[in-house]
Amino acid sequence: MAQTLQQNSTVSVCVPSYNHSRFIGQCLRSIFVQTHAPSELIVIDDGSTDDSVEIIEKTLEDCPFPCELVVRPNKGLVPTINEGLEMARGEFFAIIASDDLWLPGFLERRVSQLQHRPNAVLAYGHCYNIDENDKIFGATSDWADYEDGNVRDMLIKKYPPLAVTVLYRKAALEIQKWNPEVFVEDYELFLRLCTLGEFAFDPEKLSGYRIHSTNISRQTESIVKGKIQAFQLNAKILGLSSQELLEVVAKVNWGSADFLLNSKQRFKAIKLTLQNSHAKIPITKKLQQYLKLLLPNKIIQAKHKIIKRKSNAINGRDIKDLIIQQLGGKKNYNLDQRLSVTHQDS
Predict the structure, then answer these.
(1) Which of the residues 154, 283, 291, 329 has an alpha carbon 20 to 30 A from that of 80?
(2) Over the range 118-157, which residues count as b (16 or more CB within 10 Å of their CB) and which as e?
């Protein structure tokens, strides 16, 4: 019965591409080797100025299922995602950034979650953090205590899923789609979707979220402002009172101060911490934050380097090895070559 459900489930996958020529080949080939094949693959290049389009065209020659490439001038990420959603014909819908990748069992597991959870609007899970060279250096399970079912409180008090781990029920997205007027488009969408149904959670790590020099720039004060904007826009449907909204904003600002400190922006971190000292944060965490504000940057950075070395010592594997392992350890059809970086740096 489960196998029949899987076979009858159609999945549309959308890849919004923009200047990721180094990684787009890997991303696409990780979709090609899914144990539950998508019914269609939609790739939209959003005005890339590198050789992404050439690599996409070459890579799609090997696509084992229906695919379509749209090449057009730049419109931005959210219009690109919504364009893909409009084109999609599947029962389920997934987006994957052109620098991320999936392990082979990703779609199979997510489809199973949604098939067995009719009240769920999406399925999600943990993922690996990978660097520019495909090395695993951590995972969301290191810090995120994700929840299953009603996730309203988790989204308000803690953190959202990462988009690379999510498969959506398309019917839910026909009611609530991405808002082009907000900065943190996924977070804001999750706040609306949680009012429509459950989030089905599975703890297994089945995807890789890549952190590198060209995408870390989004981790700025703009994200903090975007989160606050998302809560302000959706306070009513979330049932937040004016006082609760103020408390949420204070917690968001408090959390961002830690990021600013780690980014060597001590003055801004101190200012934000003091402005939000009234935030309802456990006293131990407040004391830790104050202590970090007093420590020299060199000590903080040294601590992060030690943590990173320990993480690499534990993880440190090439994520392609995990892909091969999930496929039964076979490198047939030149799998290692198929998953290699197509783009050659000059």
Answers:
(1) 154
(2) eebbbbbbbbbbbeeebebbbbbeeebebebeebbebbbe
